[in-house]
Amino acid sequence: MSRIVRIVAFGLGLFGGVTASQGPEFAQQYRQRLGGAVDELRQVITRFDTDAQVSGETRESAIARLRSNADDFVSRQGAAMQGNVERLGRLESHRTAMLELGPFSRIALMVRDGDTDILEAVSRDFEPAVPVTEEGVFSAAAGFIAVWGGLLLLSGFLRSLFRRRRQQQKSVQASRSGFPASTT
Q1: Euclidean distance between CA atoms 66 and 60, whole angstroms
Q2: Is there a smaller number of Cβ atoms within 10 Å at the N or the C end of the chain?
Q3: pLDDT tens digits in sequence order for the chain, 184 residues long
């Protein structure tokens, strides 16, 4: 196998490794944003709960009161608060599930059930980094092996095809000239 092919395969393998390591890094930045969103929604809802309690209401009754208000703006605020409460429940459940899962399962959960708004925000602000966690190192190694090994296998396959084609051409030429084909 030519030295150039091995060097190119190694370089692209390194690129594949760094690229693959970005999955765990993206998931880590997603978890940070998820935690921030949960914390912020908790604060908003806690303030709402405090205001409701001071007014002699529960959260549910205060939301119902706002939603049933004839003023469209006030009614929409009630619907928005109900949406905040529901979203907080979803995000807390999602965060708990992510914390309970193993490293690679967290990535799969994020891809499968991730919060769209948070995923978009992470994508927009993503800063590549090579994580030195177990999952980051394993992902980098898997990416390197996949690209490097794949290129070497592809190179070997293509070389064997071209070698076979050259041998067939030599056989055809030899039969036309009347001389036996060389086996080299």
Answers
A1: 10
A2: C
A3: 578 877 888 888 888 887 877 888 899 899 999 999 999 999 999 999 999 999 999 999 999 999 999 999 999 999 999 999 999 999 999 999 999 998 789 989 999 999 999 999 999 999 887 776 777 777 778 888 888 788 888 888 887 877 777 777 777 776 776 655 555 5
- The answer to whether the CB of 21 falls within 8 A of the CB of 130 is yes
Task: Count Cβ atoms within 10 A of the Cβ of residue 180 and give its class: 0-12 exposed, 13-18 middle, 19 or more buried.
Answer: exposed
Six-digit token string for 86: 């529901």
3-state secondary structure the chain: CCHHHHHHHHHHHHHHHHHHCHHHHHHHHHHHHHHHHHHHHHHHHHHHHHHHHHCCCCHHHHHHHHHCCCCHHHHHHHHHHHHHHHHHHHHHHHHHHHHHCCHHHHHHHHHHHCCHHHHHHHHHHCCCCCCCCHHHHHHHHHHHHHHHHHHHHHHHHHHHHHHHHHHHHHHHHHHHHCCCCCCC
- Residue 88 corresponds to which amino acid? L
Distance CA 167, CA 183 (A): 8
Q: Scan for tokens 């009347």, then name that residue.
A: 178
- The structure tokens listed for 24 are 């765990």
Burial class (CB in 10 A: 0-12, 13-18, 19+), 30: buried
